[in-house]
Design a protein that fits this description.
single chain, Cobalt-precorrin-4 Transmethylase, domain 1, 8 helices, 2 domains, 10 strands, about 230 residues
């Protein structure tokens, strides 16, 4: 019986190629196939760009389309097809890497791949390598303590506004990723919960055109940037 290959799911960090872990770099360099996700309408992959200094010239790069849709059936079909493509490479004994921004188990498309691979190839050899998250990178960039002592930290998505923030109790610190569409409602929620005054946004952390925005009311007047997060505290 031919030996099957191995899949590494790894995070390339928030944007700076120097923030990829040594273990992730080794896996990237040794990979036969590099997979990553992109919108079905735009094949560009920031994850591949970040990892490019470490990708072998002999490795094949495959961009998997993930439709940005609320239609669960269409999305599920895409995730299944992508997982089957990865499984096909493992069947051939190849080493594959799935690149994702930040960390592969934190708001990541790799989570969908993991679930589908468990159905399609339950005996697959899969290793997940953690990556530095955008909110950790942003806190470091600002020299800002995320949490200390007996404090707690809420990590949430702001893609649909500030509803999660309004429901918090006894939380001193909040990290809001995907704060790009509904910033007005996020701001209202931060004000309602006493988190607004010490809030700061970081856009494109660790990348060219990085920006730190202290005035979140001003942020609400701008065109949304997908690579924006907010750190808030009481």
């Amino acid at each position: 019986m031919e030996k099957k290959g191995k899949l590494y799911g790894l995070g390339v960090g928030p944007g700076d190629p120097e923030l990829i872990t040594v273990k992730a770099v080794r896996a990237i360099k040794e990979a036969d196939v590099i997979f990553t996700a992109a919108s079905s309408k735009n094949p560009y992959s920031l994850a591949v760009e970040i990892a490019s200094p470490y990708i072998s010239s002999s490795a094949r790069v495959e961009i998997l389309g993930f439709p940005m849709t609320k239609d669960r059936e269409k999305a599920d079909e895409a995730w299944t097809a992508n997982a089957r493509q990865i499984a096909g490479e493992l069947d051939k004994g190849r080493t594959a890497v799935f690149l994702t921004l930040g960390d592969p188990v934190t708001y990541s498309t790799f989570g969908y791949i993991l679930k589908k691979m468990d159905q399609i190839m339950p005996d697959a050899d899969i290793e997940t390598i953690p990556g530095i998250t955008s909110f950790h990178a942003a806190a470091a960039r600002l020299n800002r303590i995320l949490v200390e002592g007996e404090e707690s930290l809420l990590l949430t998505s702001g893609a649909y506004g500030g509803s999660r923030i309004r429901n918090i109790q006894s939380v001193e610190n909040v990290a809001i990723v995907k704060a790009y569409k509904n910033i007005e409602d996020i701001n209202v929620a931060l004000k309602e919960t006493g988190l607004f005054e010490k809030s700061v946004a970081v856009s494109k952390c660790g990348r060219e055109n990085e920006e730190i925005i202290d005035n979140l009311d001003a942020l609400a007047l701008r065109a949304p940037d997908y690579w924006t997060l907010i750190l808030a505290s009481k």
